[in-house]
TrEMBL record:
The lineage of its organism: Bacteria, Bacillati, Bacillota, Clostridia, Peptostreptococcales. One of its GO terms (molecular function) is oxidoreductase activity. This is Nitroreductase. The keyword Flavoprotein applies. CDD domains: nitroreductase. It comes from Alkaliphilus metalliredigens (strain QYMF).
Amino acid sequence: MLALLKKRRSIRKFKFKKVSTDQIEQLVQGALLSPTSKNRRPWEFIVVTEEKGLTALSKSKTHGAQFLEGAPLAIVIIGDPEVSDVWIEDTSIASILIQMTAESLELGSCWIQIRERFHNDKKSAEDYVKEVLSIPAAKRVASIIAIGHPDEEKKPHSEENLLYEKVYHNRYHEDCRMRLSNTPNIKEQ
């Protein structure tokens, strides 16, 4: 699993090659297997493969979604606040599991944040996506995951770049930071 996590990078350039039906089914299964609080499953997913829909979604916000126009697949992650008060957390977990499933299938992916982002000065990105995809007003749009066969290469993350200084042992204290070797750096009193 760590090898997969190191390898996964945000991919924004995709080959002109469709994602197979089998791969889409596996991506959907990965999403539906994502854990949720109290097993409430407040998420829903829209799989978008039509070029017209992908082009429309690429305009969902002013920055950070344009590359969807070149993607063969997008999965829109929707949450229902009436089902669970932690729909944001649950949809976020589903979003990353879709990305990890994509990576395991040797597909590239990139998270596009929709919640709390803007389409323009007068409309939220969420309202725009709801209009494009006919999503009911009571539902919330958390994110869109762009997926496809990568047309760019990025080096995997390296262990040397892991920020162990952000990890503490037993309590939040400068003397309790973890070392690169994963052992606590605790000074003797």
